[in-house]
Amino acid sequence: MLSFLPDDILILVALQIRQHESLLSLVLCCRRFHCLLLPYLYRSLSLMNLGPLDRRPSQLSSFLELILQDTRLASAVRVLAIGSPFGYGGVAESTTLLPLTRSALSGVCHHQGEQDQWSEDLLGSINEDPWIALILTQLCNLKELKVNVRHGAKHFDRIVGRAISREKPFLEKTYLLITVPYFHLVSEKPLLRTSNVTEIEFSASNGKRGMFDAIYSCARLELFKYEHADGGVPGDFFDPCAFRTSLEGAKSTLRSLWLDYDSRHYSLCTESEDRYFGSLVEFTALRNVHLRYTQLLDMGIDAITPPATPLTDTLPFTLETLRIADCFELLLPILVSQLHMVVANRQERTPNLVEIVLRGTFGDREAPQDHSTWPRVYKIKQGVYGATGSLRASCEESGIRFHIEDNPN
To answer: Is the pLDDT of residue 282 over 80?
Structure first.
């Protein structure tokens, strides 16, 4: 029976159980299991979108009270998802929690004024910000955080800023749905290049200067994905070429590069978005490339003449997957001609190439549609299949997968 096994073996068993419900059943078997294994229930938690608005603060305060009363549970949390897109409610702090929060705040606040304001915000419960922030201060072993808070969450901003400044809890990964100056830190300054971050993904973003601080501070960046949002979002226009300078330090490590518009936003047709990105040959580890047509081909102002630099001279030797976005049917003859040369010279230029994907406005918008699906799925125009038929045949002969995707926007 399990009850006769040593504690170490029981812990190993618990670590192999992925379902919280199953682990909870084991914890409730007996007092020994409960005492030994209860903390492992709290290693990975999700406290996001916790039901009706009027109940969220009470649930957060219940969790806060729990970890303040049992520090074992607080120290057990490694991964946490918390918050909601609304971030407010109206439940006051309980009387049993009040002494605990006072004690906790006295240990994390830097001055009396901060403590008084935080206590007042907790009592008012006008939003989730003070609750989430205080919870984070108690999770001394937190490694990964996903949080959704309203813009202007002052307590959360302060706590995350202190954590980034190497004050506990130390974070290995964060997924933040608000703007936080994550890389504006002494240890993350661009010239030091000491950050151990290897993957960066931005969606619906509006970054400046090619996200230089975020990218150049990374010592060994392997994946960079940036999807821009214009479409009514205030900020800088999309300028893919600005990322070229930022990525100079990652030429020997970058394996995946993705620069495009976010699927939920549309192009403002600015001049900066259509500039040539430049040759990728110097990126000696690059395997996966997703770029827009105008960034990949050096077309200049006239987008209907052959590029000044052949595509074969642009792609890296290590390339495995090539995705070309924002294609137009009118431009397919030039693109297909360039890709024919890529396939023909595959053994000498890109011997590892296994997939080519063309993405653009290829769907027949005038044909009858199935309105039961969203986003709407349009059938690819026969003219598109005809224009790319020879390229598809060449790819099949060379063992390269070839796909055409319609952009639903």
So the answer is: yes
Task: For Cα atoms 117, 81, 128, give the angle at the middle one, nearest 5 degrees.
Answer: 25
Phi, psi of 44 (to 5 degrees): -135, 120
Angstrom distance (rounded) from CA 6 to CA 72: 20
pTM for the full model? 0.57
Backbone angles phi, psi at 121, to 5 degrees: -65, -35
Alpha-carbon span 136 to 409, nearest angstrom: 39
Sheet holding 173-176, edge to edge: 44-48, 79-83, 144-148, 173-176
Q: What is the pLDDT of residues 328-366, one digit of tens each?
A: 888 899 999 999 999 999 999 999 999 999 998 888 777
Q: Where are the domains of the chain?
A: 43-182
Residue 373, C-beta contacts closer than 8 angstroms, at least 6 positions apart: none
Q: Are strands 144-148 and 256-261 parallel, antiparallel or unpaired?
A: unpaired
Pairing of strands 199-205, 321-327: unpaired
Q: Under a CB-based contact definition with an 8 Å cutoff, are residues 390 and 340 in contact? A: yes
pLDDT tens digit sequence for 84-96: 766 554 444 556 6
